[in-house]
Design a protein that fits this description.
305 residues, alpha/beta, TIM Barrel, 8-stranded parallel barrel, globular, binds glyceraldehyde-3-phosphate, binds 1,3-dihydroxyacetonephosphate, binds zinc ion
Length: 305
């Protein structure tokens, strides 16, 4: 059975660690993440963006997630960056156990108003809502913000009180995608501490992929043209967890692992056209990446329900 988002996050808040929230778009990605969680005895959040839902279909994702939840680790199924009320309603009805309402692109008043509405809708299902204040930079399929507006600590307190959310995504310098920093990677840890002093609910870090150099090198060796990507170093993630982050989103690192592995297989075995031989190694590499993330987040070994 799927576990509620707030059940997993409340434990993380009490235990001072962060749980990985990994974006899934198909069966292999989900299997990679769940295998990592089982191997690491870790709770895990699998999350679907609105883009993932239109790609794979709500029913397929639901079946994949429910199958994943039969494993012996707590698994939450979360909507990532919900911006469409009808998608929120569909996910709740289908059994998603966490909802993110992303009103961060709206003016303050509208962010509060729409987030409150998402909380009200989700309450009926006993499901907690993750809200977002400030903007996380970068651009992906359906989620984009041109610039980063850092979260103001006092506004964060007011936002949590006014909306009744169960978790808050904060902007402290991360951005979505593979190109997060042009100079030295640095998160605004001082701001995080100030937010943590005022906000008592779990805090969420988006755009947190590490973009490991070894993965970029492998992808490039087999033909990827990725330029000079830069992620959030593990030490910065560890510091963010120490200062109060309880949920860490990862999509880009899984995409890079998938890409690097598929390219390698296609290059090394040009005669092989069996999808299982192409997707299998990609699944393994995504699992390896997810396992490493779980170690860094501190959620490894925390699977006890
Ligand atoms: O934060 C965004 C996630 O990486 C999902 O991206 O909208 O392209 O599925 P997507
Ligand atoms: P990355 O692009 O850094 O993996 O962030 C993903 C994310 O925040 C999903 O909501
Ligand atoms: Zn995000």
């Amino acid at each position: 059975m799927l576990t509620k988002l707030q059940t997993i996050l409340k434990k993380a808040l009490r235990g001072h660690y962060a749980v990985g929230a990994f974006n899934i778009n198909n069966m292999e990605i989900c299997q990679a993440v769940i295998r990592a969680a089982v191997e690491k005895k870790s709770p895990v959040i699998i999350q679907t963006s609105e883009g993932a839902i239109s790609y794979a279909g709500l029913d397929y994702l639901k079946c994949i997630a429910e199958t994943a939840a039969k494993q012996k680790v707590p698994v939450a199924l979360h909507l990532d960056h919900g911006r469409d009320v009808s998608t929120v309603k569909k996910c709740l009805k289908a059994g998603w156990t966490g909802i993110m309402w992303d009103g961060s692109h709206l003016p303050w008043k509208d962010n509060v108003k729409t987030t409150k509405k998402a909380v009200k809708l989700s309450e009926k299902y006993g499901v907690g809502v993750e809200g977002e204040l400030g903007t996380i930079g970068g651009a992906e399929d359906k989620v984009s913000a041109r610039e980063i507006i850092y979260t103001d600590p006092d506004s964060a307190k007011e936002f949590v009180e006014k909306t009744g959310i169960s978790a808050l995504a904060v902007a402290i310098g991360t951005s979505h995608g593979a190109y997060k920093f042009s100079g030295k990677a640095k998160l605004d840890i001082h701001r995080l501490k100030e937010i943590r002093k005022r906000v008592k609910i779990p805090l969420v870090l988006h755009g947190a992929s590490g973009v490991p150099h070894w993965l970029i090198t492998q992808a490039a060796r087999y033909g990827a043209q990725l330029g000079k990507p830069e992620g959030v170093p593990d030490e910065q993630i560890r510091l963010a967890v120490k200062e109060g982050i309880n949920k860490i989103n990862t999509d880009t690192d899984l995409r890079l692992a998938f890409d690097a592995a598929v390219r390698k297989t296609l290059k090394e075995k040009p005669e092989d056209f069996d999808p299982r031989h192409i997707l299998g190694p990609a699944r393994d590499l995504m699992q390896k990446v997810a396992e490493h993330r779980m170690d860094v987040f501190g959620c490894a070994g925390k699977a006890k329900r």
